[in-house]
Amino acid sequence: MPLMTTDYDTIAAISTPPGVGGIAIVRLSGSEALAIAQQIYRGKDLSQVATDTINYGHIVDPQAEQREIDEVMVSVMRAPKTYTCEDVVEINCHGGLQVTNQILQLVLRNGARLAEPGEFTKRAFLNGRIDLSQSEAVMDLIEAKTDTARKAALNQLDGNLSAVIKKLRQSIVDILANVEVNIDYPEYDGAEEVTSQLMLERSEAIKAKIQSLLATAEQGKVLRDGLNTAIVGRPNVGKSSLLNRLLHEEKAIVTDVPGTTRDVLDEYVNVAGVPLHLIDTAGIHETTDQVEKIGVERSRAAIEQADLVLVVLNASEPLTAADQELLDATAHTKRIILLNKTDLPARITPSDLPDDEQTAVIKTSTVTEDGTKPLETIIAKLFFTDGISRQQTDVMVTNARHISLLQQALDALTTVISGLTAGLPVDIAQIDLQRAWELLGEITGDNYDEELMDQLFEQFCIGK
Ligand SMILES: Nc1nc2c(ncn2[C@@H]2O[C@H](COP(=O)(O)OP(=O)(O)OP(=O)(O)O)[C@@H](O)[C@H]2O)c(=O)[nH]1
Ligand SMILES: [Mg+2]
């Protein structure tokens, strides 16, 4: 995309998290960034310093007799080779709410406007430095919960997904161009059939590529949002102990009193590159205790919403009716059965368990920690059959908006293919093919809609 910097107003925000810290950064972007910074800065003449330099000085209040606010380092980055493609100034000040807020106020009083969430990144998009899917990758990168999620986001930021989408769109344009040629020069016999056949073959190839992209989406979504994993079982079987083992930290309260966990507790943990959103639940059983009752209801709801259920049984006691009920309730969910407390004499044998090839059964003891490693391995295998290879994170669709657009493009291609197969004329199929081209363009923002853009960037944090 060409760099065409439009002259927008100059925006400013605190780019570091609020609170106390060694350093905080107030960032400005826009054609007035340097001039505004200069008004409140005592040090070198910023209009004369070289680009990509950091400069020592003081922030002063020009409206209050040059009162000193802080000792700072000011980074100067001149357009167009900056994050936003505009002049960018970053004031590195001392961290702390008072200092950073006062500097921000000064900047605003001297001509800048407070940036909206994501507005710096939006500028990078509007100025043509990155496309929409790359902008979204910035947010994914900030929010990455595991190293694999970070890699996938970084690849998307590098433009890997954009490149694949651009190629697909080009292939569609090539088909459409071919159709135009044949429609314009229909003089030779059989032009229509040849065109139709060619369109069909190429549409099938494009459809296959979209399908393979969509195939990465399940893994991609897990990488991004974490796998909702509910730990369920009767009271006292060791659910909270298991959560603590997987977290490698004593987060949940464990006691020998049944009914210790009364409300769901959730934590993120990285298991072999899979971000698990672990949900420890209250023991499921009949109870008249009002508080416990609500907990039990929430446990049942957690099963409904889970991508994976860890069913914990106490292997040192015979299987109870309540255990059986849980096994039935989770029969159609992705699950792993844990025979816990195997450090004690066993009272459940595998033959007591449902005969179900899909379900892995693991013996665990949260006391000896037996079974924790095998459990982690199985969880990783369930979602990433061969582990996550570099190849897979190269292009991975992680974003719900992208998934939905790819799905719609796939539907459009399916219509093209079934139409052509049924002998419909090419110019009818052409309409849906063009629709697929438009839908793919929405991923990269080549066809963008003002309202959609606002919604997207609103999800960003301030100062990014
Ligand atoms: N021997 C043995 N005891 C265990 C094991 N796992 C948990 N326990 C004990 O079992 C008791 C209950 O453990 P919790 O982790 O609180 O069980 P829970 O399923 O969360 O119980 P509720 O929250 O009450 O539903 C505690 O005394 C644990 O120390 C195990 O593998 N072996
Ligand atoms: Mg518990």
Automatic annotation (TrEMBL):
<feature type="binding site">
    <location>
        <begin position="236"/>
        <end position="241"/>
    </location>
    <ligand>
        <name>GTP</name>
    </ligand>
</feature>
<keyword id="KW-0819">tRNA processing</keyword>
<dbReference type="Pfam" id="PF12631">
    <property type="entry name" value="MnmE_helical"/>
</dbReference>
<feature type="binding site">
    <location>
        <position position="90"/>
    </location>
    <ligand>
        <name>(6S)-5-formyl-5,6,7,8-tetrahydrofolate</name>
    </ligand>
</feature>
<keyword id="KW-0479">Metal-binding</keyword>
<dbReference type="InterPro" id="IPR031168">
    <property type="entry name" value="G_TrmE"/>
</dbReference>
<dbReference type="InterPro" id="IPR027368">
    <property type="entry name" value="MnmE_dom2"/>
</dbReference>
<feature type="binding site">
    <location>
        <position position="129"/>
    </location>
    <ligand>
        <name>(6S)-5-formyl-5,6,7,8-tetrahydrofolate</name>
    </ligand>
</feature>
<comment type="subunit">
    <text>Homodimer. Heterotetramer of two MnmE and two MnmG subunits.</text>
</comment>
<feature type="binding site">
    <location>
        <position position="464"/>
    </location>
    <ligand>
        <name>(6S)-5-formyl-5,6,7,8-tetrahydrofolate</name>
    </ligand>
</feature>
<dbReference type="Pfam" id="PF10396">
    <property type="entry name" value="TrmE_N"/>
</dbReference>
<dbReference type="InterPro" id="IPR027266">
    <property type="entry name" value="TrmE/GcvT-like"/>
</dbReference>
<keyword id="KW-0460">Magnesium</keyword>
<keyword id="KW-0547">Nucleotide-binding</keyword>
<dbReference type="InterPro" id="IPR027417">
    <property type="entry name" value="P-loop_NTPase"/>
</dbReference>
<keyword id="KW-0342">GTP-binding</keyword>
<feature type="binding site">
    <location>
        <position position="255"/>
    </location>
    <ligand>
        <name>K(+)</name>
    </ligand>
</feature>
<feature type="binding site">
    <location>
        <position position="27"/>
    </location>
    <ligand>
        <name>(6S)-5-formyl-5,6,7,8-tetrahydrofolate</name>
    </ligand>
</feature>
<dbReference type="InterPro" id="IPR018948">
    <property type="entry name" value="GTP-bd_TrmE_N"/>
</dbReference>
<feature type="binding site">
    <location>
        <begin position="255"/>
        <end position="261"/>
    </location>
    <ligand>
        <name>GTP</name>
    </ligand>
</feature>
<dbReference type="InterPro" id="IPR025867">
    <property type="entry name" value="MnmE_helical"/>
</dbReference>
<keyword id="KW-0963">Cytoplasm</keyword>
<keyword id="KW-0630">Potassium</keyword>
<dbReference type="InterPro" id="IPR004520">
    <property type="entry name" value="GTPase_MnmE"/>
</dbReference>
<feature type="domain" description="TrmE-type G">
    <location>
        <begin position="226"/>
        <end position="384"/>
    </location>
</feature>
<comment type="similarity">
    <text>Belongs to the TRAFAC class TrmE-Era-EngA-EngB-Septin-like GTPase superfamily. TrmE GTPase family.</text>
</comment>
<dbReference type="Pfam" id="PF01926">
    <property type="entry name" value="MMR_HSR1"/>
</dbReference>
<feature type="binding site">
    <location>
        <position position="260"/>
    </location>
    <ligand>
        <name>K(+)</name>
    </ligand>
</feature>
<comment type="function">
    <text>Exhibits a very high intrinsic GTPase hydrolysis rate. Involved in the addition of a carboxymethylaminomethyl (cmnm) group at the wobble position (U34) of certain tRNAs, forming tRNA-cmnm(5)s(2)U34.</text>
</comment>
<feature type="binding site">
    <location>
        <begin position="280"/>
        <end position="283"/>
    </location>
    <ligand>
        <name>GTP</name>
    </ligand>
</feature>
<dbReference type="InterPro" id="IPR006073">
    <property type="entry name" value="GTP-bd"/>
</dbReference>
<feature type="binding site">
    <location>
        <position position="261"/>
    </location>
    <ligand>
        <name>Mg(2+)</name>
    </ligand>
</feature>
<keyword id="KW-0378">Hydrolase</keyword>
<protein>
    <recommendedName>
        <fullName>tRNA modification GTPase MnmE</fullName>
        <ecNumber>3.6.-.-</ecNumber>
    </recommendedName>
</protein>
<feature type="binding site">
    <location>
        <position position="257"/>
    </location>
    <ligand>
        <name>K(+)</name>
    </ligand>
</feature>
<dbReference type="InterPro" id="IPR005225">
    <property type="entry name" value="Small_GTP-bd"/>
</dbReference>
<feature type="binding site">
    <location>
        <position position="236"/>
    </location>
    <ligand>
        <name>K(+)</name>
    </ligand>
</feature>
<feature type="binding site">
    <location>
        <position position="240"/>
    </location>
    <ligand>
        <name>Mg(2+)</name>
    </ligand>
</feature>
